[in-house]
Specification:
Elements lengths: L3 E7 L3 H12 L1 H8 L2 E8 L15 E3 L3 H4 L6 E4 L7 H10 L3 E4 L2 H18 L3 E2 L10 H8 L5 E7 L2 H13 L3 H10 L8 H4 L2 H15 L9 E2 L7 H9 L2 E12 L2 E12 L11 E8 L3 E8 L3 H18 L22 E2 L6 E11 L4 H11 L4 E6 L7 E8 L2 E2 H11 L10 E5 L5
Parallel strand pairs: 1-2, 1-4, 2-3, 4-5, 5-6, 8-10, 10-13, 10-18
Antiparallel strand pairs: 7-9, 7-11, 9-10, 11-12, 14-16, 14-17, 14-18, 15-16
Helix pairs in contact: 1-12, 4-5, 5-10, 7-8, 13-14
The chain binds L-homoserine.
Length: 437
């Protein structure tokens, strides 16, 4: 029996079916790589009243999670339900019954990962979650194992396939994002609640995990500064391009002594930066370390087959050492649990950035001077000021690029500028990264 690892699967949605497909269709390849068999014994889903394009004749199907999480003939449970609950309850139950866990659930790990890692350690089982960050890209394994000899100095990630797909099509086709979102949903990229994608929450889940793994911290998803792409128009994308930049939703994490900077927002990246070339549902994670310098991992960040690929790679890692448990694998968060500490999150007001600012103003004499005077007064120097259109009666956009300043200072300047009677209170603030460090 030790030459076989018996798997139970929770959730037969897009990724669940992909994972089942690999276990069934690639069974022989998996055995050749492991020297042991990995068998899908049982699967559970709320709605079984449908046809599957997979042969489940040897698989026990159930609509009760406890048939998987407590079953004596299951060694490893794959959780692909998504969301915080009931996933947390089911995973907890499975760990308490001595099952190893593999999950693609970034929300679960971002919010409850530390509690689940502690429970898994107590029960001597492993938790694999490669698919939670970067879809099919083995970026967590790269960080945890391949870059283990480094102090990590920065992480930049395009971590949400839906947003990257939407931004790419907005740029290429001049479409509004709501038109493209439907396509992202039908391709299986979007979350059950797509506001998680659009408003940056999914990226923040992933960033909080990869950041904690990079810097040896506990996970603090609630502290990630998070802005999504819903305020970005096709016009902004074109204006940025005119200036030599592409807008990408980035997750950014950098260490500062005993603090960590963690932010998710639409970011202007130079058109010639490698990360600017990442289009469609592709993700990329750029990780820099003190010895390795810069690395970049690239691949599909969402969708059935790429995500299932990462899920089953985790299953195989655990199966390879089975029946031995967690102490035969790298620690899940890359540091032994006693070495992980609580690093404080740097307040956003203290973070330094360069900015792209778009004011809507009345085209009257002195308006641009008023903006630049206040910026100068706050010690903010400028790289560019652009006003293209002229409409005496309508508001026109005035776009500025600033040099580096801190967020608190910038926000004070904006508050002062928007008191001007000819300047609209609605200001688009985008942050800019150079990638030339
Ligand atoms: N909704 C996510 C995305 C799925 O679009 O990237 C992969 O985590």
């Amino acid at each position: 029996m030790m030459n076989e690892v018996r798997v139970g699967l929770l959730g037969l949605g897009t990724i669940g079916l992909g994972a089942a497909r690999i276990l069934i269709e690639q069974n022989s390849l998996i055995s050749k790589r492991l020297g042991k068999n990995v068998r899908l014994v049982a699967a559970c889903d709320r709605s079984l009243d449908r046809t599957f394009d997979l042969d489940f004749s040897d698989v026990r199907l159930s609509d009760q999670a406890s048939d998987i999480t407590t079953a004596d003939d299951i060694d490893l449970v794959i959780e692909l339900i998504g969301g915080y609950e009931p996933a947390r309850t089911f995973v907890t139950q499975a760990i308490e019954h001595g099952k190893h866990i593999v999950t693609a659930n970034k929300a679960l790990i971002a919010k409850h990962g530390d509690e689940l890692f502690a429970l898994a350690e107590k029960h001597g089982v492993s938790i694999g979650f490669e698919a939670a960050v970067g879809g099919g890209i083995p970026c967590l394994k790269t960080l945890r194992e391949g870059l283990a000899a480094n102090h990590i100095t920065a992480i930049y990630g395009i971590l949400n396939g839906t947003c990257n797909y939407i931004l790419t099509r907005m740029e290429n086709e001049g479409l509004d994002f709501s038109e493209v979102l439907n396509d992202a949903q039908s391709l299986g990229y979007a979350e059950a609640d797509p506001t998680f994608d659009i408003e940056g929450i999914d990226t923040a889940h992933k960033l909080s995990i990869i950041s904690a793994m990079a810097f040896g911290s506990t996970i603090h998803f609630d502290e990630v500064f998070t802005e999504g792409i819903s305020k970005i128009s096709a016009d902004d994308i074109l204006a940025a391009k005119d200036l030599g930049y592409r807008i990408k939703l980035l997750g950014i994490a950098k260490p500062h002594g005993d603090q960590v900077e963690m932010r998710v927002h639409p970011t202007l990246v130079p058109l010639n930066a490698q990360i600017a070339q990442v289009s469609d549902s592709y993700n990329a994670v750029q990780i820099s370390g003190d010895f390795v310098e810069h690395t970049i991992s690239f691949g599909r960040g969402a969708g059935e087959r790429p995500t299932a690929s990462a899920v089953i790679a985790d299953v195989m890692d655990i199966a390879r050492v089975f029946p031995d448990g967690s102490n035969h694998l790298a620690p899940p968060m890359g540091f032994i649990s006693s070495a992980r500490t609580r690093l404080a999150t740097m307040p956003m007001n203290e973070v330094n950035c360069e900015y792209y600012l778009r004011f809507m103003v009345k085209d009257e004499p002195g308006v641009i001077a008023a903006i630049t005077t206040i910026l100068a007064d706050q010690g903010i120097s400028l790289e560019a000021v652009i006003q293209k259109e002229r409409h005496k009666r309508q508001l026109v956009p005035v776009t500025l690029l600033t040099h580096e300043t801190n967020e608190g200072n910038l926000q004070q300047a904006i508050a002062r500028i928007t008191q001007h009677p000819h300047i609209d209170a609605n200001v688009l603030i985008l942050r800019k990264e150079r990638f030339d460090a």
